């Protein structure tokens, strides 16, 4: 990993936005970008862009993982995120949908930078399924179908939820119920960041 990316925590705010598929991570991030000047990085979007990039060495691997609802190997995702952080002029980053499993969390914090806080958007599978099927009507995403969605739920519970539990031990996790409207959920999320930047 490049030494440039190993910036001190004082210089940088890195927040992980975690939650099951369809919990509203991207929607909440868009509002935080507007109010707090974050750069929003979606691990899923970065992987999809890389998959479509002509000549990508990871393209086929990423495509197969997405199709199967599996997790892309850590080093691929971390490389893409680190590149984006280094290229950016900002020092505030929201990373949504990452870390997807504990080894990603540990590797990112060791090799790139430690996270400042974690938002965990808590949502029932029933609500998330309804949201994703509705999104699938227009998104054109290959993973917005019921079979893949159910695989993604299983992957989240088995591999991603332990990440939330790991960070909870360090007191970094803010759990936010997210089955209400976008505005109601954001009314719970916004004060967490207002408080964070007041302290800095």
UniProtKB/TrEMBL annotation:
Query: Can you state which reaction this protein catalyses?
Result: UMP + ATP = UDP + ADP
**Example GO biological process:** 'de novo' pyrimidine nucleobase biosynthetic process
Any transmembrane segments, and where?
A: none
The cofactors it requires, by name, are: Mg(2+)
The record ties this protein, via InterPro entries, to: Adenylat/UMP-CMP_kin, Adenylat_kinase_CS, P-loop_NTPase, UMP_CMP_kinase
Q: Could you tell me which CDD domains the record lists for this protein?
A: ADK
> Main role?
Catalyzes the phosphorylation of pyrimidine nucleoside monophosphates at the expense of ATP. Plays an important role in de novo pyrimidine nucleotide biosynthesis. Has preference for UMP and dUMP as phosphate acceptors, but can also use CMP, dCMP and AMP.
Annotated protein name in UniProt: Uridylate kinase
